[in-house]
Amino acid sequence: MRRILGIALAVLLIGGVVAVIAIGGREAEGTATKTVRGVIGSEKSDFFRDPDVVKALADKGYTVKTETSGSWAMDQLALKEFDFAFPSSSEPAKEIEAAAGVKGAQTSKPFFSPLVVIARANVARVLTDNGLARMTGKNSGTLLMAPYLKAAGEDRTWQQLPGSAAHAELTGTVFIKTTDPATSNSGALFIAAASNVANGNTVVADDAGIARTAPLMRKLISVQGALEQSTDDPFRAFISGSGEPLILAYESQVASLMLQKQAVGNAADMVVLYPDTTVNSPHTFVPISEAAKELGTLLVDDPKLRELAVRHGFRPQEGVAEFTAATAPHSGYLNPGLTGIRQVGAPTVKVLMALAARAKGQGDTP
């Protein structure tokens, strides 16, 4: 009897093991099977950390681990340690391809985000009253680049602007807090747009253009003191109620704050100013290893990932309608159609990096 019971128990145990393996196999279906490591711009950190994004990627067979870097500094990294790089625009992507030895890789551009300047309502009012900005709604407007750059070139102070005396925090030279244009995408693209305006609304393309615009670019950067490496820190400082009166940011940071219904706290009176001349920022996915080759395409085409990108404030390529529909409740802060905004090309990487170096006072020759 004991022998019969032992055999029966053994059969049950074996059956249980088989059942567990079978169940485990079924549970594994749709979960991540491929781990890839990438270097990304910091503005995409929240996107890749989002549990819904993690799940959506796992459902497609990916676990994605990321590190952050300034977009224009990525080509200096040991890129062979990564499966992909995801800078914030197409210009540094070309340098990354060359540095990683994957020139001609099948890059993709899943989404983009225009630059904006954020300010408090009282600051925006002073700018508007002095012809440096134009309000288009209660919490949105346009930064007039030519008048702003003229004021910067003249070292205009807040105290020289009528209406600023009522606001004790408005002291010193009027400037926009940017990131480091030599390493960070937002800072570099602001220099690209500003140099275009300063160069007679023409892309700077040669040494003469660099020499012509560099002194003003130097003023825009030198007045800031220590430069940030990421848009994330000054944006969070603004939301917390500290920071400079004018902060350069990505529209995606503002839209994400609204769409995810985060507590806006000290940002309740935020005004979003779109520079009237801008260089768009198409986030460009560069596959470095075979393991990540299809991930960029997935980010472009997968409906769920597109939906989640919008939730994080990004505009899918050819996805104006998606972005407009999602942000409709917050249209008082945003400019979904980028109405009245002149979009210009960026200089070549060589010229833009020469401008950035001159802006930081690092030599008088490109």
Describe this structure as you would to a colleague.
Residues 1-30 have low confidence and may be disordered. The protein is an alpha/beta fold and 366 residues long. It contains 14 helices and 13 strands. Helix 7 crosses helix 8, helix 7 (185-198) packs across helix 14 (349-359) and helix 8 (207-222) crosses helix 14 (349-359). It starts with a helix and ends in a 7-residue tail after the last helix. Strand 6 and strand 7 form a beta hairpin. The strands form three sheets. It has a six-stranded mixed beta sheet. A five-stranded mixed beta sheet has the order 6-7-9-5-8, with helices on both faces. Strands 10-13 form a two-stranded parallel ribbon. It has helices spanning 2-28, 45-49, 51-59, 90-100, 121-129, 145-153, 185-198, 207-222, 232-240, 251-259, 295-301, 303-311, 320-327, 349-359; strands at 34-40, 62-68, 84-86, 108-112, 115-120, 133-135, 140-143, 247-250, 270-275, 277-278, 282-287, 315-316, 342-343. The longest helix has 27 residues, at 2-28.
Features:
single chain, 366 residues, alpha/beta, six-stranded mixed sheet, 14 helices, globular
